[in-house]
Amino acid sequence: MQGIKQAIIGLTALATSAAAVAGYSWTFPEPVTPIAHETLKIHNLFMVIALTLFFVVFALMLYSFWAHRKSKGHVAADFVGPKSRKQWFWVCVPFAGLLVLDYGVFGIPAYHAVLMYEDSKTDADMVVKVTGSQWLWEYEFPAQGVKYTSRMTTPREQIDGLQKKGEHYLLEVDNPLVIPVGKKIRFITTSNDVIHSWWVPAFGVKRDAVPGFLREFWATVEKTGTYRGQCSELCGKEHGFMPVVVNVVTQEEFNAWIAERKKSLVASAK
Q1: H helix or E strand, kind and range, residue 6
Q2: Hey, where are the domains in the chain?
Q3: Rounded to whole angstroms, how far apart are CA atoms 218 and 177?
Q4: Contact at 8 Å (CB) between 239 and 209?
């Protein structure tokens, strides 16, 4: 029995270490928002618990196969007849364990993450409206009076295999979304036609854009840079050609970009 205990402890430590050293590049993109950090934290916690349970149960099964084999004279239990207390015990204990895991170990962190994800209105610094269409995105800054569309720019020759695929194949657009770093952005999504879904993996957010409905989420991006995503809801034959590109810049750069956008709108209106 001492050897079995040591094996279980070793397997548990191995599972914990494997989950702990799993780099962002192995599992998730590097998280750059509070929601993405929380998602990765919960994911790693669940994986540690799931792997630990797997190895413990697997070790117990192997031990049972070895210790209770027929060649050692072990006689199989007879379960015919009324249930014994021992049988009821081994039915109720795993059931109670699952309840503790689902509503305690798993449920509490997941519940906290969901509450945080849905809190889009508290202390929001800016509103961005995202409208999906077949097959492009429209971005609007209501307070700033800026509105424009964002379309994929990957050449058709690359899509048809007539040219070598570029570095950002199917993930490049003419007008990316630009937002300031470190600000809480309240996103409002909707659609002009069918259900689309705005998704940037590094932000840890994904929200369906549903016709006739306004749906919300938020993101506070911690690092400047360019982040890419896609529409993740099957929305028609060009579904794979609705990339999302977000440029996260400093507040000064964002102000300059907004001013330039306003000038372009005024010039195009003349």
Answers
A1: helix 2-20
A2: 2-65+91-118, 126-269
A3: 15
A4: no
For residue 191, give the H/E element and its range: strand 184-191
Please identify which residue in the block is written with the tokens 């509105």.
147
- Sequence letter at residue 164: K
Amino acid found at 6? Q
Architecture of domain 126-269: Sandwich (2.60)
What size, in residues, is the chain?
Answer: 270
Collapse the DSSP code of 116 into the 3-class scheme (helix H, G, I; strand E, B; otherwise coil) and give the result: helix
Determine which helix (DSSP H) or strand (DSSP E) holds 200, and give its type and residue range.
Answer: strand 196-200
* Contact indicator for 202, 36 with CB cutoff of 8 Å: yes
φ and ψ of 26, to 5 deg:
-85, -25
Query: Tokens in use for 95?
Result: 């059931």
Rg (CA), the chain: 26
Distance CA 157, CA 155 (A): 5
- Kindly report the number of other CB atoms within 10 A of residue 254's CB atom: 20
Give the type of residue at 117.
Answer: Y
Tell me the whole-structure pTM to 2 decimals. Answer: 0.76
How do residues 44-58 score in pLDDT, each as one tens digit?
888 888 888 899 989
Model confidence pLDDT, tens digit, residues 184-196: 999 999 999 999 9
Residues near 165 by Cβ (< 8 Å), separated by ≥ 6?
158
Query: Residue 128: CA atoms inside 13 Å, Cβ hemisphere, count?
Result: 24
Say which DSSP state 83 is in: P
Count of C-beta atoms within a 10 Å radius of residue 182: 13
